[in-house]
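Hi V.,

You were right to ask for the full record rather than a summary. Here it is.
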Amino acid sequence: MNFVAVNENYKNRTCLKPKDLEKSPFVQFDKWFREAKSLNIIKPNAAFLSSVNGDCQPHSRTVMVKAYDEKGFIFFTECETDKVYQIDKNNNVALLFSWLEIERQVKLTAIAIKLSIKEAFFYFSNRGEQMGCWIEDDGFLSTRALLEKQLGRLLKTLYYKGIEQSDIFCGYRIVPKTAAFWQVCKDKLYQQFTYTKLKNGWEITEN
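Predicted structure:
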């Protein structure tokens, strides 16, 4: 197989300039995500989540990011999983959105913060009302919709009972420390802009 013969559909894409970028990586992500979704990219909210175990051995798996806003990126998972054990011991993680069809990717280095029942209930109750807040998955609609409906009912029950955490499922917010936006473009093999979190905003560098 010739791996040099890559997809050239976007080789004439105009390169980004710093002035073209949003000041917030979350707003920039929202623009790229909406474009990926409009182009019918399969599962644009699928992302590779990497964590490390007690021996500092990296582990990666795909998660479905269900929401995002200016606070971070949200995913839900069963509690009895390796990723939960690893994150609870070391919450430094990486998250990668890879949209190969349009030759773009977004790479995050971040910390993972477990959501309280109240926070998780907030995202279910207010989905679709904020910037890109709730992401509906295409495919498997009947089964997934049913599961999400059941999860929503469970969250509501736990929330009104004043329960802070569940031992059945966990929600996490991925809070970026850096966010790198990579793409193929005209006159370059690729370009990448990295947002780095500072005390008062974000610094943007091209690398």
